[in-house]
Amino acid sequence: MLTSLQNPLVKQIRKLHAAKERHKQELFLLEGTHLLEEACAVNYPLVAVCCTPEWQASHPELWEQACNLCDRSEIVSAEVLNAIATTVQPDGVVATAKRRDQKTQLPVTGIVLAVETLQDPGNLGTIIRTAAAAGASGLWLSGNSVDLDNPKVLRASAGQWFRLATAVTEDLTATIVQSQQAGMQVVATLPSAKLTYWEVDWRKPSLILLGNEGAGLSPEIAAMADKQVQIPLSPGVESLNVAIAAALMLYEAQRQMIYRQ
Questions:
Q1: The domain spanning residue 123 has which CATH number?
Q2: Contacts by 51-57 with C-beta closer than 8 Å and gap 24+?
């Protein structure tokens, strides 16, 4: 059992709390039973799995699954687990995994989201969770956004991070142009738009542009859209949370696909 905070593996995992080290090591953190279950369910390749003796005793099947997917498994003391976790009260297990290839291409069918300069990991995780639930084809994230594999993003996604195709684009403009050339309609969310989001035909392959929490979409990106839509708000209400806005459009798209065949 690992009990020393000076153990090389422990020190390596603790460094993954910082984005710079996650990029350098090409690894990210998985914390908690639920995220580990979701990773195992899709056979996501793990690097190391660490758990307390108590957690191992109460999750023997999941421990065996994780061990089969990882390069190294270790039983650790509660003190070590607390040190390697980013959460205040970890539930007994932490794993590391290889970062996804974030330069992959996404589908140009169905509904795809493109998120510009998003900073809050909770918002991104919630958008990923909602997109997976609503059957979206994927999500583009601009390179100046929060890390796609930030621990808080994974937790907020409730494990759906593993089930939604995602990619990072360093040139969102080029990504939008490529989507349009592939036949997708590009829809921007703007408070000043004339159309409401339910007036769009979401049965067409669509790329939904979502902006920063405070500033919204940049004018340059918004101007590239084929359609600009708004979400009606009662007087005095300035805006909706970006994850809520995404949910409304994703489920309107799903409703149209089901009931307007």
A1: 3.40.1280.10
A2: 51/75, 51/76, 51/81, 51/92, 51/93, 51/94, 52/76, 52/77, 52/78, 52/81, 52/92, 52/93, 53/1, 54/92, 55/91, 55/92, 55/93
